[in-house]
Write a structure and sequence with these properties.
It contains twelve helices and 20 strands. It is α+β, with helices and mostly antiparallel strands and 424 residues long. The protein has a six-stranded mixed β-sheet with strand order 3-2-1-4-6-5, sandwiched between helices. Strands 11-14-17-18-19 form a five-stranded antiparallel β-sheet, with no helix packed on it. The longest helix is centred in the middle third of the chain and has 30 residues, at 206-235. The radius of gyration is 27 Å and the shape is elongated. It starts with 16 loop residues before the first strand and ends in a 6-residue tail after the last strand. Belongs to the tRNA(Ile)-lysidine synthase family. Pfam families: ATP_bind_3, TilS, TilS_C. InterPro entries: Lysidine-tRNA-synth_C, Rossmann-like_a/b/a_fold, TilS/TtcA_N, tRNA_Ile_lys_synt, tRNA_Ile_lys_synt_N, tRNA_Ile_lys_synt_subst-bd.
């Protein structure tokens, strides 16, 4: 058996189910074969992603199922729809669709193995360099990472494509050859067929050396994240960054903690230019300003001495909603819930109206505008806050108050506005 089989599962987290991302090509076929020989003491399954981008896609899916049947490994074929859009990378969109589909099938602590190797790692590093990526991007593909509820493990990163092909030929394996892998219009294929062979003429071990550089970058990125976590603890919370504390840091640490914070919130990172606008347009703005910097999938705003990061806000609502109380009601921003144990006296089944601010609203003799300001509700949330009406009377505002005539001392309701973390 090839040497790599001895340590193939050594880096896997504990699991009861192991998936193999099986395309039918050389690398994943060798991985499937190796695991079929090992027969680990847990459930072994394969998943084949049908992208629908190649004329042979149906035949490839059928082939993978037949191979898995021979190895007595269950194989699930999952079809995905790859977004085709101008100025977007087909490779990147196919990769996103693929990992999204794999993530959907993973139960908690399932492990999926993919067959990327040292040459793939080298190509990824070069692509990131050409995109001007920072340390995190240059770390390329980690050996182990979380994917949805499970784990993504790449056990072959220490081996070159040539080594894997030697193993496969020794085992007399047969695999699918995807003709699109030779199409140098794709950036990765261009590097693979045109650039790396030229580099190998001068530096024969270039793929292994670039893979080593990626590991060094991964270590550097880990140190940066540790530093960012320390800075975040002294200058912010999971949902807010305190500007005076941020301003006391050197600019390089400000950028580091800002990127770390945005990523920790699950938002896509802004570009270098957008990051600079955050500092020039928001951080240095006067406290009474309400600046915003938006990018695809996220935006940052300022309120008083704090920064807030959030997904892109939806359009401001302009229509009233009917609420069959106390059912959960979806809103333009988040949802409305009613739970028992509050001060609102109201019968189940009551039909209510949910309106949004137009100006001039009054609750218990006080202007709603002033109530929202006193409560410290950020300005961008105020157009979205649901105002609860019964027969044209404003009776409640979540987290703000209840009209006096609808207050009870016991057995009432509490109306909650769940903003779905859009106030990050």
């Amino acid at each position: 058996m090839p040497h790599f089989l001895e340590t193939l599962l050594g880096i896997c987290p504990p699991t009861q189910r192991l998936w193999i991302a099986y395309s039918g090509g050389l690398d994943s076929h060798l991985l499937l074969y190796a695991l079929a020989q090992l027969r680990p003491p847990f459930e072994l399954r394969a998943i084949h992603i049908h992208h629908g981008l190649h004329a042979q896609a149906d035949n490839w899916a059928k082939h993978c199922q037949e191979v898995c049947q021979v190895f007595k490994i269950a194989c699930e074929v999952k079809r995905v729809k790859v977004r085709l859009a101008p100025r977007e990378s087909l490779e990147a969109n196919a990769r996103s669709a693929r990992y999204d589909a794999i993530g959907q099938i993973l139960a908690p602590d399932d492990v999926v193995l993919t067959a990327q190797h040292a040459d793939d790692q080298a190509e990824t590093l070069l692509l990131q360099l050409l995109r001007g990526a920072g340390v995190a991007g240059l770390a390329a593909m980690p050996p182990i990472s979380r994917l949805a509820k499970g784990w993504l493990v790449r056990p072959l990163l220490a081996y070159t494509r040539a080594q894997l092909e030697d193993y496969a030929r020794q085992a007399n394996l047969h695999w699918i050859e995807d003709s699109s892998n030779a199409d140098t219009r794709f950036a990765r294929n261009f590097l693979r067929h045109e650039i790396i062979p030229l580099l190998e003429q001068r530096w024969p071990r270039v793929s292994l050396m670039l893979s080593r550089s990626a590991r060094h970058q991964a270590e550097a990125d880990e140190l940066l994240q540790i530093l960012a976590q320390e800075d975040l603890q002294t200058g912010g919370t999971p949902s807010q960054l305190f500007l005076p504390a941020l301003s006391r840091l050197k600019p390089v640490r400000q950028r580091n903690v800002l990127r770390f914070w945005i990523k920790k919130l699950g938002l896509p990172l802004p570009s270098t230019v957008q990051l600079q606008h955050i500092f020039s347009d928001i951080v240095t703005a006067k406290a009474d300003r309400q600046p915003v910097v938006r990018w695809r999938g996220g935006e940052i705003r300022r309120y008083r001495d704090f920064l807030f990061a959030m997904p892109n806000l939806p359009p401001v609502p302009n229509q009233n909603l009917i609420w069959s109380f106390p059912e959960t009601l979806p809103l333009p921003l988040g949802e409305l819930r009613a739970v028992q144990g509050g001060r609102l006296k109201l019968k189940s089944g009551t039909s209510l109206q949910v309106r949004f601010r137009q100006g001039g609203e009054i609750l218990n003799g006080r202007a709603v505008k002033k109530l929202l300001q006193t409560a410290g509700l950020p300005p961008w949330q105020r157009p979205f806050i649901p105002l609860i009406y019964f027969e044209d009377t404003l009776i409640a505002i979540p987290n703000i108050g209840v009209a006096d005539e609808f207050v009870t001392q016991a057995g009432g309701w509490d109306i909650q506005w769940n903003k779905e973390n859009n106030d990050k």
